[in-house]
Amino acid sequence: TVSALIFPMSQSYIGALSPKGSEGRYMGTFNLFDFVGFGLGPLLAGILRDYTSIDLIFLSMAFLFALATLLVVILLPTRPQNKRINNPSVPSESQHIRPSWPQIIKNPLVQAIFSLRASVSVAIGVSFTFIPVLLEEDLGTSSTAVGLLIGGQQFMGGAVQPILGMFADKYSKHIIALIGSVLMASSYWIATFSDTYWILLIAFVVGAGLGSAMSQVVAATNQVQIGRTLGLSTVASIQSMAFAIGILIGSAGGGVVAELLGRRFTFACAGLIIIVGYLIYARRSSDNKKVVT
């Protein structure tokens, strides 16, 4: 519930700040902190679990939430301050006539980025659920090593977000998403067979980290572009739902697959879902050539 209130609003806020033609650069910079946060969490949690107690992990989370709330209350303006918002000759988001929900859901680009983000999120759900089990039970690694792999994947994704954002503004989003999907799927297929920690570390940090960043920055850029027509907060909320559904399917569905076919097969399925998600994105987004190039 908390994340459902935070992520759509923060993404639409950054979207409102983004000048036309620079959506990738702005969203990429914002996603940098998103990825780094996801990376620091597992890494610090692993260290705290190894050397202190699990209670301290939850106390730390509560403190960080309280600190973030305080900073928002003190520092964040009610509305983004930019020329687009302050210029009365340019209609603000609230002045647009909003399409109905059926029109929004039927929009090809909304469906495209929903499928792209959901497929990546399914893989992330599988990773967060089964990588710790694979590393600790099958390979006998420590919690810190688990946190290093998951955290390193997110750090890699965050580090390249601003650069990838600029690429998404200038070059083909289809090609960027394709390369990202192939890289990410390859890392999960490697996890299906490899029993070597260092191979898995490199595969997930370079393949999944970089690949996920490429897909996510394309989805975020398209989200702002179509959000200017359909509503920034509306589209952001739909994409947050895609992320939540993907995590749920990856975790719960992965559990079913693991029970029936074994834990390793969940990674193979995740890789396949990533490719299918990209194919749906490529097909549906081709109907919006004015937005996606």
Characterization of this structure:
With 293 residues, the chain is mostly helical. The protein contains eleven helices and no strands. It has helices spanning 2-17, 23-51, 54-75, 83-86, 101-106, 108-138, 143-170, 173-193, 197-230, 232-261, 263-285. Helix 2 (23-51) packs antiparallel against helix 7 (143-170) and helix 9 packs antiparallel against helix 10 (232-261). The longest helix is centred in the C-terminal third of the chain and has 34 residues, at 197-230. It starts with a helix and ends in an 8-residue tail after the last helix. 44% of the residues are buried. Residues 85-91 have low confidence and may be disordered.
Short description:
The chain is 83% helix and 0% strand.
Question: Which terms summarize this structure?
Answer:
globular; 293 residues; 11 helices; mainly alpha
Secondary structure: elements and pairs:
Elements lengths: L1 H16 L5 H29 L2 H22 L7 H4 L14 H6 L1 H31 L4 H28 L2 H21 L3 H34 L1 H30 L1 H23 L8
Helix pairs in contact: 1-2, 1-10, 2-7, 2-9, 6-7, 6-9, 6-10, 6-11, 7-9, 8-9, 8-11, 9-10, 10-11
